């Protein structure tokens, strides 16, 4: 990521909504998050901002006119520059477009700066474009648009121990219900987990997303086989970093056929990650 700085000195400040506005605007439509709120705060801090301000998008904030909104920014932050993406609008009913904000800036003493959107493969980078690529399993495109690899975080919880029975024990990752999850299939990943007082351990992992059709599963799970790792992971926090999608989830004739395929998946995972 590029470092952030104020256009002409002063402090560089970002305002971040804790939740997506459409969660309030369209409560009947499911909302998925590409990253957790904590991850967003951390990443914004890494680009060199002087301050990141979390804001709740609620009915009171939604009702503010563009003038009322920027008045709050000028009053509390002594804003001198406002940076927005092209096409962004603020205030009630999105009335605060570039023209309106330009006039308000002249009146209140701040300059408006519009930045062009980033593009990937001739497509504007947006959360919708990233979600589409994620749900289609196009991890290379996801990484290019995010500027980093996609990760899932959660707690390792007990499963049905099918992997252990096959000779490939897996860590069953419990993720937040609103987390965006890649398309079902097998992925080459890195798994990072705190296993002892010495800090996190990062190991290659073949990760399966799906319903486990060979065993008649119905519930979608995220399960990672940590290659070469031995130990108890139950109850520990784990991060899965997605590198490449290897194949679709398949229904095998029996457990032996599935175990043979998992062995091939492990080989492919090592190759994709560049480990022996």
User: What is the number of helical segments per DSSP (H or I, 4+ residues)?
Assistant: 9
Give the strand order, joined by hyphens, for the main sheet: 7-8-11-10-9-12
Helix content range: 25-40%
What would CATH call the class of the largest domain? Mainly Beta
Tell me the series of helices and strands, N- to C-terminal. Answer: EHHEHHEHEEEHHEHEEEEEH
Alpha carbon gap, first and last residue: 30 Å
CATH topology of the largest domain: Elongation Factor Tu (Ef-tu), domain 3
Q: How many domains in all? A: 2
Task: Categorize the overall geometry.
Answer: elongated
Cα-atom radius of gyration = 23 Å
* Biggest beta sheet summary: 6 strands, antiparallel, barrel
Look at the structure and name the CATH superfamily of the largest domain: Riboflavin kinase-like
Number of strands: 12
* Sheet/helix structural class: alpha+beta
The unreliable regions are none
What is the name of the CATH architecture of the largest domain? Beta Barrel
Q: Determine the strand fraction and express it as a percent band.
A: 25-35%
Mean pLDDT reading: 90
